[in-house]
Specification:
alpha/beta, single chain, 18% strand, 2 domains, 2-enoyl-CoA Hydratase, Chain A, domain 1
């Protein structure tokens, strides 16, 4: 029996594949544990520079497996106190979401925790927390409005309706839309461009972009300028 998460590495890029196609890659404890282990492997392996997360089959991830929600530990799946946002935040390396089909509720949150998204023409997105009666906990209410704006996030989360890939691109949720058979090739192409960058500076830039999530513009701008002064002092004015 295949594991619920597949992990391969090629050309310094890890591909993490959610692998429960018979359940539309719905989230159970084993899938979460495998996903967390895979992201940590990316974070800790110096030969890996970036990662792609995708799904096997017709869905990216259909959300929490309702058969598992009352019987399995989905919020501390490994028993170590770490949760999905903690795992993503601790990874300094860029993670690309390659969204091949439905990304629903918890699966949508996996996508939102990635650094950016490339979508297949078959992709679609929905927040159905309000329909199924489950409190969001992996960033939906914050990350969705950050991606598409507050009013569009309200529409998606209040109505629980799907948006298609093209609408998601128009709204700024995804960066690009590709033909289904081009999705992984395009994600790998972008990953190769990332791998060609200066990796030390890339990590700095990623942290600077993420810093804006916790600080107002003036403070974030000052933080960047201070880092630049320190860089000049260290590298250009020995």
């Amino acid at each position: 029996m295949e594991p619920p998460v597949l992990f391969t590495v090629e050309n310094q890029t890890a591909v993490i594949t959610l692998n429960r196609p018979e359940r539309r890659n719905s989230i159970n404890q084993a899938l979460l544990s495998g996903l967390y282990d895979a992201i940590e492997q990316v974070a800790n392996n110096h030969s890996i520079q970036t990662a792609i997360i995708t799904g096997n089959g017709k869905s990216f991830c259909s959300g929490i497996d309702l058969d598992a929600i009352m019987t399995e530990n989905l919020f501390d799946p490994r028993g170590d106190g770490t949760d999905m946002p903690d795992i993503f935040a601790a990874c300094e390396k860029p993670i690309i979401g390659a969204i091949n089909g439905h990304a629903i509720t918890g699966g949508f949150e996996i996508a939102l925790n990635c650094d950016f998204l490339i979508a297949s023409e078959n992709a679609s997105f929905a927040d159905t927390h309000a329909r199924v009666g489950i409190h969001p906990g992996w960033g939906m209410t914050q990350l969705l409005q950050q991606a598409v704006g507050r009013r569009r996030a309200r529409q998606m989360s209040f109505s629980c309706q799907f948006i298609d890939a093209q609408t998601a691109c128009e709204w700024g949720l995804v960066n690009e839309v590709t033909a289904p058979d081009r999705l992984l090739d395009r994600a790998r192409e972008i990953a190769g461009q990332i791998c060609a960058a200066n990796q030390d500076l890339l990590k700095v830039i990623k942290k600077l972009i993420d810093y804006r999530d916790t600080a107002p513009l003036d403070a974030a701008f000052a933080h960047e300028r201070q880092g630049f002064r320190e860089f000049v002092k260290k590298h250009l004015n020995p």
